[in-house]
């Protein structure tokens, strides 16, 4: 047996059993397969985005703004005016039509739109069936980008 020179301790040789085979389990076996994921019982809901606030000029009285807008809105007085937050897009569009028909000074931001445009330039002339296959691939790409 070899000895450690500094401490004079006997070091036993390593015992290795070569006949024993090592089996590694797949740690992903407990996860459901792809076909099981479609019927997982969960309901996935995407929250709709809220419309931007509408800000009315600060010269107006708060109670007159509240009566003009109606119920269902949140109002907040700021240094630049009264901020009106609508709960959904329908109420937002309803208030915008009222404001456009009146002489009230207001401003708002543009509603966020999740569409995009793609321009393909410099494509070679392809047969008709290749163009159809390419358009299908682009639709798949578009749908995968919109999910992100």
Itemize the secondary structure elements and their pairings.
Elements: H1 34-37, E1 54-57, H2 62-69, E2 74-77, E3 81-85, H3 89-101, E4 106-108, H4 128-147
Antiparallel strand pairs: 1-3, 1-4, 2-3
Structure in words:
With 148 residues, the chain is α+β, with helices and mostly antiparallel strands. The chain has helices at residues 34-37, 62-69, 89-101, 128-147; strands spanning 54-57, 74-77, 81-85, 106-108. It has a domain at 54-108. Helices cover 30% and strands 11% of the residues. Strands 2-3-1-4 form a 4-stranded antiparallel beta sheet, covered by helices on one side.
Short synopsis of the structure:
By secondary structure, this protein is an alpha+beta fold. The protein is built from four helices and four strands, in the order H-E-H-E-E-H-E-H.
């Amino acid at each position: 047996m070899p000895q450690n020179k500094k401490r004079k301790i006997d070091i036993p040789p390593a015992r290795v059993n070569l006949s024993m085979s090592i089996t590694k389990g797949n740690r992903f076996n407990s996860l459901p397969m792809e076909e099981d994921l479609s019927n997982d019982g969960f309901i996935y809901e995407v929250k709709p985005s809220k419309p931007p606030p509408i800000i009315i000029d600060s010269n107006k009285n708060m109670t007159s703004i509240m009566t003009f807008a109606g119920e269902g809105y949140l109002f907040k007085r700021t240094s630049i005016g009264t901020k009106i937050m609508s709960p959904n897009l329908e109420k937002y569009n309803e208030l915008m039509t009222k404001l456009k028909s009146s002489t009230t000074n207001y401003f708002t931001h543009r509603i966020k739109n999740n569409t995009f445009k793609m321009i393909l330039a410099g494509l070679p002339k392809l047969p008709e069936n290749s163009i159809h296959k390419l358009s299908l691939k682009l639709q798949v790409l578009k749908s995968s980008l919109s999910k992100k």
